[in-house]
Amino acid sequence: MALFPVTDYDKFIWDTELKDWLPDNIIDVHTHVWLKELKDGYNKEKAGGHFTVSWPSLVAADNSIEDLEETYELMFPGKKVKALMFTSGGASVANNHYVSESSVKSGYPALYYSHPTESAADIRRKVIAGGFLGLKCYLSFSPKYIPDDEIRILDFFPPHQLDVMNEMGGIVMCHIPRSTRLKDPMNYEQIAYIKENWPNIRFIVAHIGRAYTKGDIGDAFTRLDQCPDLMYDFCANCCEYAITELLKHAGPKHSMFGTDMPILRMRTRRIEENGTYINLVEKGLYGDVSKDSHMREVSREEAEKITFFAYEELLALKRSFQTLGLTKEDLEDVMFNNAFNLIDGASKDIYGKPFVF
Questions:
Q1: This model's pTM is above 0.85
Q2: For 148-160, b where at least 16 C-beta lie within 10 A, e where not — what string?
């Protein structure tokens, strides 16, 4: 039995919109892999307790490496897909180890899910021991005493850890904090500060800086034009305006595809309303969503024309490409080459060996 159903409408979208448009080789630069039984209390003891949205947890309880591989087979038939992966926001020692083992097994490169209290020596040792190419962390690990809207990137990626990544030439995957997202001056100023002081870090601004609506951008891209080597992923982002602005400012050489799997297995159509995003889902498909402002149920009849979140993201990308008149070569950069070069460069700098796709 398949991990999840693929409907006739999904097949229609794939066959008519995506199959021939997408390149044969794809790298998903932002994916979570973990097992629910390996959450060992590390997160409860060490997390700062800051608020995070709850709806992603409704999609899947965990995401094994086997589930991830099957997901790609079901959703991207005929394509060769690999992921840059890391464990989830409930990171544990055991799940970091599981990701390391899964990387060896699958050939998918991986990042270490760090905690800001870990010393420079610990970070260096754990990255090397696990064969990781860098770090992922989450704003919820910031100290409890910091109000949610005052969290800075350096509160969960402290300078001593960035020193290690800079020396190694490692990747840092950053999910920025604060309710005003990419347009918050503290966010784009800290990103510029990090690139100025730790220039060898391969820094990725995840989710286009969480700019999920048109109002989340402000003048951030103009400010970040001073950082020409920044990389961005548009993971879990269906905002055509944000993707278009990213491609206009950073360019297709600095934009990368990501899925946030297993979240983008979700069946949803995302809309913008009153300055926020809302995920439209079939009634009853994800349990009781009445208390989540980012979720809204629709009838079964309307849901028949709702496909995978991943497909919606790619359709938004396709529209942006058409608007800007970008080329097949640009698409190969966004879907494969940029991520390959980033991963290959980190692998060579840290371990002296190339990445084999």
A1: yes
A2: beebbbebbbbee
